[in-house]
Amino acid sequence: NAGVMQNPRHLVRRRGQEARLRCSPMKGHSHVYWYRQLPEEGLKFMVYLQKENIIDESGMPKERFSAEFPKEGPSILRIQQVVRGDSAAYFCASSPQGAEAFFGQGTRLTVV
Amino acid sequence: QKEVEQNSGPLSVPEGAIASLNCTYSDRGSQSFFWYRQYSGKSPELIMSIYSNGDKEDGRFTAQLNKASQYVSLLIRDSQPSDSATYLCAVNKETSGSRLTFGEGTQLTVNP
Lengths: 112, 112
Known about the structure:
With 112 residues, chain A is mostly beta strands. Chain A is built from no helices and eleven strands. In chain A, a hairpin with a 6-residue loop joins strand 7 and strand 8. Chain B contains no helices and eleven strands. In chain B, a hairpin with a 4-residue loop joins strand 7 and strand 8. The N and C termini of chain B lie far apart (37 Å).
């Protein structure tokens, strides 16, 4: 049973470009969460999605960031017009009906 | 006041000792509690979950929950150098389907 799959593992973008991060949840998991971890800081919640629905986006910056979890395919976290401050590790987690969440390996985004 | 607070550490213990990690939370309505282990440069790994007052043991790990004191702890018995990592306390307001709020983590070093 494959775990939570994230790709790419490392992503380098120039300032002003777009970054797309993908997450495929564990089989049987219908809840997807995105978290961001800045260097030497804790994990900060960004968004919680179920298939075709955004349940809680209270942690998402109001501009440039968006997320989706379509009926088919992975969940996507999209960052438009990236800035240096977006450089961080972005983690996706998934859970079944219960509260236990399992994390993917993360995408390390570097903005140059 | 932070929603979830942990001793920032670092905590250093000798091999074979008991490591004690502590966490307090501010929302009295919180329902579920988790400990994650994160090695440097890696993703968080779920090691313990606890939902009701008392102790829960799993191998060398024991989680303790006291909802009246809004306190959760993790004990690691017979600590090994491989336990050296950052330990993250996470709290969920519901028993299922909502976001985790993380503490900043406690860095543990186990000295051979």
